[in-house]
Amino acid sequence: MSDLHFAHIVLNVTVLKHSREFYEKVLRGFRVADESDHHVGYSNGSFSVWLADEDREGSPFVGTATDKAVGLHHVSWKVETMEELKEWESYLREQGIEMAKSGITDDDFGGQGIFFRDPDGVRLEIHLG
User: Fold this and answer.
1) pLDDT, tens only, 2-37
2) Is the CB of residue 95 less than 8 Å from the CB of residue 58?
3) Cβ–Cβ under 8 Å, residues 57 and 22
4) Whose CA is closest to 49, among 124, 127, 104?
5) Is 114 within 8 Å of 89 (Cβ atoms)?
6) 128 φ, ψ to 5°?
């Protein structure tokens, strides 16, 4: 039996246009794999991130994400060096993306990362290591 690897994540969003603008800044190296009026999928060839603003019955998603409830706490991407993490910090700052604690911070588990939120409040991280 082979090991499992993540294939994709799907994030429910309230306003696809706003989320798309945000994630196109964050998902450098990802390309649009599929899109419609109510979803867009980005892929880097081995992993995909999908955004959808309504369910299969056509009902829009509402509310704000929270990392205080049952469900997804946060999404994290990995970098290998502190230099890469610093490059991401500079890039996010240039893009006007607000970062928790103004940039690189301790991740509370002995590592370092950058924490920020998407337009619907989903907590995101770029993690060193």
Assistant:
1) 898 889 999 999 999 999 999 999 999 999 999 999
2) no
3) no
4) 124
5) yes
6) -85, 125
